From TrEMBL:
Any matching Pfam family: Ski2_N
Protein name (record): Helicase SKI2W
Subcellular location: Cytoplasm
Highest taxon above the source species: Eukaryota
Source lineage: Eukaryota, Metazoa, Spiralia, Lophotrochozoa, Mollusca
InterPro entries, alphabetized: Beta-barrel_MTR4, DEAD/DEAH_box_helicase_dom, Helicase_ATP-bd, Helicase_C-like, MTR4-like_stalk, P-loop_NTPase, RNA-DNA_Helicase, SKI2-like
GO cellular component, one term: Ski complex
Organism: Patella caerulea (Rayed Mediterranean limpet)
Keyword Nucleotide-binding annotated: yes
Primary location recorded for the protein, binned into one broad class: cytoplasm
Membrane-traversing stretches: none
């Protein structure tokens, strides 16, 4: 305030209340002054005396409650009476018509007979409540991708529920009031049960009369066997009476014989029950003969949907015949064999039938190429990619497999008219990241869609076709080619200069023969040059080549190919950096004529003419123009997409003579060369360096040889260092290609998309995956076997023995557990070096198996069996005339046969003691004793085998055999309870905690066997055999039930764990109903959990669109190493927030036991945040490339994928009703969609 202005405001003091408080108040100025007036905050003269005292107010409030403000009528809610409008009841919305009038005609004459009213099925069904193809179209039926609120169409191969079937099942359903009634209400954590508590052990045995048991004493006391009661006497079950009829056939038989017959009949019945006939599995794949010519091809198809100027091959004709029959086919053909012909005929058929065909490819670049190729043949072709939609209503739509998956999940109405789905490059299903998409699409396709699978040659085509046929329940016809249309010749090149350019050695000829002489010549050439170098410069180990040597090698190779007229050539190199270096070193190379240079220049300038001025002068554009004029091309992911298309088109014209490329160029691109050169046969697969797989080598080498131009294709491997091993070359070149293997895995997006539709189950998706094929292909056979077992189990009778009925079944389970645990421990011991050393000839052991029950034996020999199991030849005591065969050894793979484990008393022959050889397994050894004796093993084995022959069987045993046999007799008689065994912990020094715990459990079980009552039964052996037959049936029943249930699915535990994560994050509720967060996650195609959490935590709403684009760039950028970006404060906060959410999700996954939980903190790469931020702010592309060392092509790819992610988040904002976020995401996606990053593809122009 300026000096002199403070006297304009006049203040005074005012006493407030009765406590002496004072406030400063302004004094009102006179009317003629211009001093501003300040508002009064208090009464100018204090509290008026008319106000009551505080005591009076308090007494009034306490005594008269009606005066409280809550009872003030002026503060009450006001009500306006509703205006009556009865005329609104006169109009009612029209319900959909449920019936229609149909004409009845005479089927012979067609004469009108009358009319009838019939029910219209699927009335009222829409895309929001039905999976039927007969439902009404969705509101946005022109939206090719569908909508996340739509239901998908019912997947083919699944049993679609029909109303009549459901009603029939309900009418036939029998409700068990004991087991089928639920005791927990929906949404309640627990319920109430009315069952009586079951006691774990039975101490007091019930009375015999109450148990209705027949004991041995009762049977012996009967006068007539007819009085024997074998259980229920109602006589309704005829199967139960079979045994009784067999017993009472002859009354004159004594009672003991009748009992024996009873046991015999039960045993025979049990044996019959176990022996089930093996059912034959159904084959869905049909192999088509492509060796024999199709003579009547044109008779079967007089008017073809499409013709070609050449005669189709046999495999093409076979495929066309099946397409005409509306069959699905799997074509596995060599590279450049002509698989595209089959795809073209399917498109022509759909045009003829006025239906649609979808052609799917693994990568976007291949989709663009196929669009151009098919556009030259057909007029009605469309392209649908992440950022381009051309002619979406066309009869033939080309797209990536991910887009087709989105259409299937979102119930796109395009699926209604779909006749063919063509899957190109099916071997891409082996891709660990994207292979699951192929399986999802094949499973979700409706039944009316036929599939055409196109693939390179793979060894398990029939297996894959069987899987597709099983899940779709239709035959798949497998068509394969026997050989390449253009044979290949494989060479080794050891030269390093123009002087040695003739060092080209044929390794595999055009007939596929591996030439050892060629390999030896390559070795000799390398060895000779190395010896000359060592003489001139001294010994030197040379495993590779320096940049100068690399240049000389490539110049010599190209010069050699040029002289032999073997250009154009593709040089596959597995490093982008090395490709750029090779192209840079060949600046002096010129392979084109002046006319070719002019043609290249015109095409190049025309291609980049639509780019912005600064984009035309990018360093990569200028460098590429110079290289292409000289006939040199570069093709890898770091090159700008428009430049890669220029290279591809010029190579297709034959103007690019040498093309340095990564293996992506071999992915489906129909651009064969005359020669293929491998810079190396080793590559880094993301984990480590390895040799090329046979499938990878065949795919790349298959680019050599142009059909109709070249008689053979040439494949050359450069030997810059040492010549590769012959075995490695043979395996890579002539080995079997990689099998098609399932890469199916659960994703949160898949789970949520299936959970939002009540009729679909995630378990059904897992059952139909390729990974579960072998487990699910025998389901029908398992069901038949289960029905047979049900009948067998229904006639099982309990053992009617007072002694055995108490604990015989528990004893059987204990024996089973004991033998299983014993086998596991013995097998573990047999892998321990000290234990193996102790099992040498002369060691006394105790044997316990089905033939030798707790018998002493001495080891004579140890060897390995046919199943790689360790077997022992032992000498054991036996009764004379008894020969122990190796029956148990033969059935080693059939599992454990449960036998009774009785108290351990050493076996001693009852009659004259004899000896015999026995072959036993490791798990037959019950105890490895501390005792050893001296044996002459070879002599003993030879003598015993000699006396097994008829002419020597009366010879007395040799001295070596007699000494050992007498020692076994002495030890048996002196130690009837067994010999002391070696302690696994002390003697074998086994320190594994798990083993020690299992060993203690085994000892506890062993000590408990003497406490069972059933072992005292006089008919224990017969009863044990009977209970074993019964338990085998029950165990087999449990096994089949398990195989037919969801519990047998490999991925079921992971699914349950992921569901716990989704519940914890509130994506689903306890009843697995998808919540709002789950619906939002269905809109997101990448990192759905992280982006959804960002949306719901309101991280993006307050940010600028450029900041949003920069933050979300980490979701699509994948390069591991790049320069560190300079981030603003807002970007750093966004990065930290993403890492915080990622750590929370990762923690939740680990808490719920997901062992394969992604390390989200390592998944996100923030290297392009600064680049995307400046690009969104409008900086030219030439400027943003200076902010990072990431190559231009990767930047473009990242921004293109980011545009799709921003669109996904925009749709998520629409679902949650956030207009601010919706507008910002729309703006963010628009500001990055410009210039060279989103330049139109040359294939679409």
């Amino acid at each position: 305030m300026a000096e002199g202005e403070n006297d304009q405001f006049l203040f005074d003091l005012l006493q407030i209340g009765c406590n002496g408080n004072v406030e400063v108040i302004p004094v009102q100025p006179k009317k003629d002054t211009k001093v501003p007036t300040l508002p009064l905050k208090t009464l100018p003269n204090g509290i008026p005396p008319v106000l009551p005292e505080l005591n009076e107010d308090l007494e009034k409030l306490l005594t008269c409650l009606d005066d409280l403000p809550i009872h003030d009528i002026n503060r009450a809610q006001r009500f306006w009476p509703r205006e009556k409008q009865p005329e609104r009841l006169y109009s009612v919305d029209i319900c959909p018509v449920q019936t229609t009038i149909q004409v009845e005609r005479n089927p012979t004459t067609g004469q009108l007979i009358g009319f009838k009213e019939s029910f219209i099925p699927d009335m009222g069904k829409s895309s929001n409540n039905s999976l039927s193809l007969r439902r009404s179209p969705s509101v946005n039926y022109q939206d090719i991708r569908g909508n996340t609120i739509n239901y998908p169409f019912w997947p083919g191969g699944m049993d679609e529920p029909i109303l009549e079937n459901l009603n029939q099942e309900e009418s036939q359903m029998e409700i068990n009031l004991t087991t089928d009634l639920l005791n927990t209400a929906p949404n309640m954590p627990s319920g109430m049960t009315f069952e009586k508590k079951k006691t774990e052990s039975v101490e007091v045995l019930p009375v015999e009369s109450e148990m209705k048991l027949t004991t041995l004493v009762d049977i012996m006391a009967l006068d007539d066997i007819d009085d024997l009661d074998l259980g229920d006497s109602d006589g309704e079950d005829t199967n139960d009476s079979i045994i009784e009829q067999n017993i009472v056939d002859d009354d004159s038989k004594p009672k003991d014989e009748m009992l024996e017959n009873l046991v015999k009949v039960v045993k025979e019945a049990d044996e019959d029950k176990v022996k089930l006939p093996p059912p034959k599995p159904k084959e869905w794949a049909v192999c088509v003969d492509t060796k024999s010519p199709v003579d009547d091809f044109y008779k079967k198809i007089p008017v073809m949907a499409k013709t070609w100027p050449f005669e189709p091959d046999v495999f093409q004709k076979q495929a066309i015949l099946h397409l005409e029959n509306n069959d699905s086919v799997f074509v596995a053909a060599h590279t450049s064999a002509g698989k595209t012909v089959i795809a073209e005929y399917a498109i022509a058929l759909s045009l003829k039938h006025m239906t649609k065909t979808i052609y799917t490819s693994p990568i976007k670049a291949l989709s663009n190429q196929k669009y151009r190729d098919f556009k030259q043949t057909f007029d009605d072709v469309g392209l649908v990619t992440g950022d381009v939609q051309l002619n979406q209503t066309a009869s033939c739509l080309i797209m990536t497999t991910e887009i087709l998956r989105s259409m299937l999940y979102n119930g796109s109405d395009v699926i209604r008219d779909l006749e063919w789905v063509i899957f190109d490059e099916v071997h891409y299903i082996n891709d660990s990241e994207r292979g699951v998409v192929w399986e999802e699409v094949l499973i979700m396709l409706p039944d009316h869609c036929n599939v055409i699978l196109l693939s390179a040659t793979v060894p398990n085509t029939v297996e894959f076709a069987n899987w597709v046929g099983q899940i779709k329940r239709k035959k798949i016809y497998v068509i394969s080619t026997q050989k390449r249309p253009v044979p290949l010749e494989h060479y080794l090149y050891t030269g390093n200069s123009n002087k040695t350019s003739n060092e080209l050695f044929l390794l595999i000829d055009d007939k596929g023969n591996f030439l050892t002489n060629g390999y030896k010549k390559a070795l000799e050439a390398k060895k000779e040059r190395a010896s000359k170098r060592s003489q001139n410069f001294g010994a030197k180990v040379n495993r590779g080549a320096n940049p100068s040597q690399e240049k000389n090698i490539w110049l010599s190779v190209i010069e050699m190919l040029k002289s032999k007229d073997q250009l154009p050539a593709v040089a596959f190199t597995f490093s982008k950096k090395k490709i750029d270096e090779n192209a840079y070193h060949l600046q002096s190379l010129d392979l084109t004529s002046s006319s070719e240079k002019n043609e290249i220049h015109v095409f190049f300038q025309k291609s980049i003419n639509k780019l912005k001025g600064s984009d035309k002068s990018l360093p990569q554009v200028i460098l590429m123009a110079d290289m292409l004029k000289r006939g040199v091309g570069v093709h890898h992911s770091g090159i700008l997409p428009i430049l890669k298309e220029v290279v591809e088109m010029l190579f297709g014209r034959g103007l690019v003579k040498i093309l340095f490329s990564t293996e992506t160029f071999a992915m489906g691109v129909n651009m064969p060369a005359r020669t293929v050169v491998f810079d190396s046969i080793r590559k880094h697969d993301g984990t480590n360096f390895r040799n090329l797989l046979p499938g990878e080598y065949i795919q790349m080498a298959g680019r050599a040889g142009r059909r109709g131009i070249d008689t053979t294709g040439t494949v050359i491997i450069l030997c810059k260092g040492d010549v590769p091993e012959a075995a490695e070359l043979h395996k890579m070149m002539l080995g079997k290609p990689t099998k098609l293997e399932s890469q199916f895995r659960l994703t949160y997006s898949m789970i949520l998309n299936l959970l939002r539709v009540e009729q679909l189950r995630v378990e059904d998706m897992m059952k139909r995956s390729f990974s579960e094929f072998h487990a699910q292909k025998d389901v029908s056979q398992h069901k038949e076997a289960l029905a047979t077992l049900n009948k067998s189990i229904a006639v099982i009778k309990d053992i009617e023995c007072f002694t055995c009925c108490v604990d015989l079944e528990k004893y059987f389970e204990a024996c089973s557990q004991y033998l299983r645990l014993k086998r596991d421990l013995q097998l573990l011991i047999l892998t321990h070096p000290i234990a193996l050393k102790s099992l040498s000839p002369g060691r006394i052991i105790i044997i316990n198996n089905s033939q030798l029950k707790f018998a002493l034996g001495v080891i004579l020999n140890t060897y390995t069996g046919t199943h790689n199991e360790r077997l022992f030849t032992v000498l054991v005591l036996s009764e004379k005339g008894v020969d122990y065969t190796s029956e148990d050894v033969k059935s080693v793979m059939n599992g454990i046969k449960v036998r009774p484990v009785l108290t351990k008393k050493l076996y001693e022959p009852e009659g004259p003691c004899w000896h015999s050889l026995a072959t036993i397994r490791g798990d037959d050894i019950d105890v490895i004793t501390v005792k050893t004796i001296k044996v002459e093993a070879d002599k003993i084995i030879s003598d015993v085998k000699k006396r097994q022959q008829d002419r020597f069987k009366d010879n007395p045993p040799s001295k070596s055999v007699s000494v050992v046999a007498q020692e076994l007799i002495r030890l048996t008689q002196a130690n009837p309870q067994g010999l002391k065994g070696l302690d696994p912990v002390k003697d074998f020094r086994i320190k594994d905690i798990d083993y020690i715990e299992q060993f203690r459990s085994l000892q506890f079980l062993e000590e408990s066997f003497g406490e069972y009552n059933c072992i005292h039964c006089p008919l224990f052996d017969e009863h044990f055999e009977q209970i074993r037959g019964n338990m085998e049936l029950k165990n087999e029943y449990k096994r089949l039930v398990h195989l037919l249930s969801d519990d047998s699915l490999i991925l079921l535990p992971e699914y349950q764990q992921r569901m716990e994560v989704l519940r914890s994050l509130n994506y689903t509720n306890d009843q697995n109903t998808v919540q709002l967060k789950g619906r939002v996650a269905c809109e997101i195609s990448t990192h759905e959990l992280i982006i959804t959490e960002l949306v719901f935590e309101n991280v993006l709403t307050d940010l600028h669109p450029a900041d949003i684009a920069a933050i979300l760039s980490c979701m699509v950028f994948e390069q591991k190493r790049c320069s560190e970006p300079n981030l603003t404060t807002e970007l750093e906060k966004g990065r930290d927030h993403i890492l915080k959410i990622a750590e929370n999700v990762s923690r939740l996954q680990k808490e719920h036991g997901i062992l394969t939980a992604e390390d989200y903190a390592e998944t996100f790469k923030f290297g392009l945040m600064e680049v995307v931020f400046e690009w969104a702010r409008g900086l030219p592309f030439s400027e943003i490339t200076k902010l990072t060392d990431v190559q231009e092509g990767i930047i473009v790819r990242c921004i293109q994928r980011l545009h799709e992610t921003l669109r996904d988040v925009r749709n998520a904002a629409r679902i949650i009703g956030d207009p601010v976020l919706y507008q910002k995401m729309e703006e963010a996606s628009n500001i990055i969609k410009r210039d060279i990053v989103f330049a139109a593809s040359l294939y679409t122009q």
